[in-house]
Design a protein that fits this description.
mainly alpha, two-stranded antiparallel sheet, 2 strands, heme binding, Cyt_P450_E_grp-I, oxidoreductase activity, acting on paired donors, with incorporation or reduction of molecular oxygen
Length: about 240
């Protein structure tokens, strides 16, 4: 099915055979991504694995995720953590239900998803203090802005004016996420200088001579938190 939105031409592929033809046989030719104007905020589009084009940096980021986050060995290593997070989530919900209290499942599910991801990346929980409140608010609002229909995406000639203000609204959210990531990187560097042992998490792997610069890793982590935590939370809820 061919769809034209503004000046942008989309082709919707719903048949299994056609999808296989595109995703497997011609993936290298069709791996480009449509530009999402809101993700240009604070230059995030240059560091986003979700939106950036399939260049050398994108391939390096994808390889990092494939080997250090989604590989069978890594998933098996994180199995006990995931079980612990699920047990804590179920226990929390059971306690509230036993008291006959009404509450939003979304909140504890969000915390469980966020801590699972933060443990894999930073080996710490981000479930307390002002940082997690900022991160929760950032993820929720950024998800809404990223998914909102934006006239700038369909008429690139007027994108510089940001007529709906989505890029302007996204800018402080990206800045908040990058600041939180910066804090974690600095803490890890200080720990290394103090002689603390390696944690062998995703952050440790990246800091060992990777060609991926610091902005790229902050962009990757921002993508993972915005895309991963919110979708996981919604699925659980």
């Amino acid at each position: 099915m061919s769809v034209r939105l503004g000046v942008v031409h989309f082709v919707v592929v719903s048949a299994t055979d056609a999808a296989q033809e595109i995703l497997q046989k011609h993936n290298a030719d069709l791996a480009g991504r449509p530009t999402v104007d809101a993700w240009r905020a604070n230059g995030h589009i240059a560091n986003s694995m979700i939106i950036s084009q399939a260049d050398a940096k994108w391939r390096a980021l994808r390889k990092l995720c494939a080997t250090e986050l989604f590989s069978p060995a890594r998933l098996n290593a994180m199995r006990l953590l995931r079980q612990q997070m699920v047990q804590e989530l179920v226990g929390h919900i059971s306690e509230r239900a036993a008291r006959g209290e009404a509450f939003a499942v979304h909140d504890p599910a969000f915390t469980a998803s966020m801590n699972t991801l933060s443990r894999a990346i930073f080996s710490v929980d981000l479930d307390s203090g002002p940082a997690v409140r900022d991160l929760k608010d950032m993820v929720k609002e950024a998800t809404v802005l990223a998914m909102a229909p934006n006239v700038s995406d369909f008429f690139p000639a007027i994108a510089a004016a940001d007529p709906q203000g989505l890029r302007r609204k996204m800018a402080p959210l990206v800045a908040t996420a990058y600041q939180i990531m910066d804090q974690q990187v600095e803490q890890r560097l200080r720990a290394r200088e103090a002689g603390e042992p390696r944690k062998n998490d995703m952050l440790d792997v990246r800091q060992e001579g990777s060609v991926i610069d610091r902005n790229a890793i902050k962009g990757l982590f921002t993508d993972l938190f915005v895309a991963g935590v919110d979708t996981s939370t919604t699925t659980i809820e």
